[in-house]
Amino acid sequence: MAAIIQVTNLAKNYGDFTAVNKLSFTVNEGDVYGFLGQNGAGKSTTIRMLLTLIKPTAGSINIFGKELQHHRSEILRQTGAVIERPDLYKYLSAYDNLSIFAKMSGIKVTRKLLMDQLQLVGLDKVYNKKAALFSQGMKQRLGIAVALVHDPRLIILDEPTNGLDPQGIADMRNLIVRLSKEMGKTVVISSHLLSEIEQIATRMIIIHKGEKVVEGSVDELLDPAHTLVDIQTTNDAATRQLLETSRWKIFLQPAKPLQLMMNKDLVPALISELVAGNVQLLSVNSSHSLENYFLSLTTQPGYVEAFAN
Amino acid sequence: MWRLLQIELFKISKRPRTYIAFIAIAAIVSIFQFAFKADGQSYMDLMMQSAKEEFTFDRVQAINGYFMCYIILNTLLIQVPILVALIAADSISGEANMGTLRLLLSKPVSRTQLIIVKFAAATIFTVFLLLWMAVTALLLSIVIFGTGDMLVFRTKGEDSQIMLITQDDVMWRYYAAFAYATVALTVIAALSLLLSIFAENSIGPIIATVCIVIVCTIISNINVPVIDRNIKPFLFTSYLVGWKGFFYIGTRPDGSTIKGSLENWPAIRKSLLILLAHIGVIVGASVLVFRRKDILS
Amino acid sequence: MKLLIAVILGFCGASLQAQDADGLIKKVKAKIDLVNNYEADGIMKTNVTFLKVPEAQVKIYFKKPNLLRIKNEKGISFVPKGAVSINLNSIVSGSQYTAIDAGYDNIGSVKTRVIKLLPTDDNADVVLSTLYIDEASLVILKAKTTTRENGSYQLEMIYGKYIGYGLPDKLTFTFNTKDYKLPKGVTFDFDDGSNNQPAQKNKNGKAEISFSNYTINKGVADSIFK
Prior knowledge:
The complex is a heterotrimer of chains A (309), B (297) and C (226).
Chain A: E1 3-14, E2 17-28, E3 32-36, H1 43-50, E4 58-63, E5 66-67, H2 72-77, E6 79-83, H3 94-104, H4 111-120, H5 136-148, E7 154-158, H6 166-181, E8 186-191, H7 194-200, E9 203-208, E10 211-217, H8 218-221, E11 227-233, H9 236-244, E12 259-262, H10 267-276, E13 281-288, H11 289-299, H12 301-308
Parallel strand pairs in A: 3-8, 3-9, 6-7, 7-8
Antiparallel strand pairs in A: 1-2, 1-4, 4-5, 9-10, 11-12, 11-13
Chain B: H1 2-14, H2 16-48, E1 55-56, H3 59-62, H4 65-88, H5 93-98, H6 101-105, H7 111-145, E2 150-156, E3 159-165, H8 171-197, H9 203-220, H10 225-230, H11 237-240, H12 265-292
Antiparallel strand pairs in B: 2-3
Chain C: H1 2-32, E1 37-47, E2 51-52, E3 56-63, E4 67-72, E5 79-80, H2 89-92, E6 97-107, E7 110-119, E8 126-134, E9 139-147, E10 152-159, E11 168-176, E12 204-216
Antiparallel strand pairs in C: 1-3, 1-12, 3-4, 6-7, 7-8, 8-9, 9-10, 10-11, 11-12
């Protein structure tokens, strides 16, 4: 699979502050590439560097096999983007907004093309309505239309579900899946929500404090074998003893109060055995290690370092 | 580039804000016209008060369309920079504020192109504003007040002057004056554009532009030798009123005026070149700054 | 005896000359009186420091005793108020003055009789008028007038084919001007960097009118002077 985006040792400093540090990753053709990180982790800065909105302090970006700085126009002509809230020209209609950005993308603009695009995002009925009167969801859809109107190979979506209601989020998710599966586009999508990424992405990267924590295919990273199981009982010490002598001990996390890492499929068997061993269970929580990790970004800095290593 | 310019002009034409400037001009001009129609004589008497004892002149003819336009321009060209700033200072900051700047710049359009197109659009807006002024302040005044010889009152250093330009010698001066004013106001447009790069909403650069113009105009009008020599030549506002130079008519040694002449064309040309240089430097600086700017809006 | 004769002769001579001055003025006046009214085309040049005006095509209207109007048919013209004195009538009319012979002087190549007129009315604005009269043609070539309030005027006349009516072809009117000042702050003017020092305070203004096409005694409507 050809690499569409190849980022090597990318860095961005603002004075003493390092927003992005030695970041390297690869997006392959056809990927829905999830860009995951907390707010302020450096996602937006990285995405803006991909779109030449921000100049990197160091490192290189190659898109479509070409160096971004030197082939900017050529690359951007095949790239569509929605960056955060797609605030458009409020005083212009949906049609005029789309028309302007289509023309700026350097394509031949016809009424049919624009109307088809508006239809794709469900705005064809309100094509003449001023963007100022649109709901956030409608604006987002118009933003998507703007990003797609010139039929780009690569689509970059920065936090596209921000401010959307659940239905809007679902629509967006379906659209991204369609873009990837039916239209064969490569999509880069950033989010601070793992749940969002895990539902649509094929590959992903997690960044924290401007640095890469992990990168890989979603299947790999969210492998069910890496399910974390937290057990609460009336007598944890006795239960630990029981577990250490059982076949589960290999999964037992030493420093944690009764936490196991195991394949998700085995959780029912574990519960059966604990019950059979007369353990008074208070709760059994299973969650993916990546999700746990991601949750801990905000709460347990120490764990983050452990995971990263 | 042409396509980009069309897009910019389309955007400007669709903004309600654009028309504020045109309405403001029409309003100010019509107030002037109404006031002079009702009581122009008082103004004329005020201007002539110290010459009245020694001269008689036909006052009815003195207030005509040409005279009116000069009076209106004299006042209005102090305010028009604000109207130019209203649009030009919004060029980049307005896009940043709306969130469209990041979208624009992620299109295959170079930043240099974008700034130049923004500047060109602001300049075209300025030209339209001046055309509108020509229509309202000159043509409409001619319709209302008729034509005739034109009186020009002038303060030169410690002295005052009254100049009389015959009516067949007036129009070309207006063409030239409007052309000069376009260049002068384009400096304001360029300045607003530069300031708008640094801001994320248009209020800041509009106010900054207006403040710069006001402060520099005040300094330009302080008649202190030390300022005259050391500061004034470096303030662009000293050259904004250069359009008036086209109404300072040349004279023979016997004091009579020479039709079609200018008192000091080299001074006007120099001012014009200084203004053009300002435009070049400011637009150049805008390109440099904008090319390096990280778009964080 | 000789002394006495000399004194008498001298006295008579003086009295004779005074008689002559009055007589000459009367003759000049009689000539001026030939013209009841006139209308003429003229080109007016004004040379005043604070005024920059073009040569103006004007029409000059006159009607006895002292109505005068200089009118620019096409545009605006500045007419010095004192130019009413262009009307020589106002100088020589009436008899409330004392004429004093002041000898002869040359104006160009013409020898003229110089006569000073002193108004008898102490409150008159005119303090003194000096006339330079061409005795042969009975026309005034130059007149200087000093006034109490309005400075001094000087008229110089060059005559041509209307000399028979005492009407000049060209008239130069020199007068004192005051400073002209615009109210402060009404204009923001273009400072072209040229010398802004106050111009040499030449307090004299000059208006020059070249006359042509006199229409004499054909009547001029009163309405023109309003």
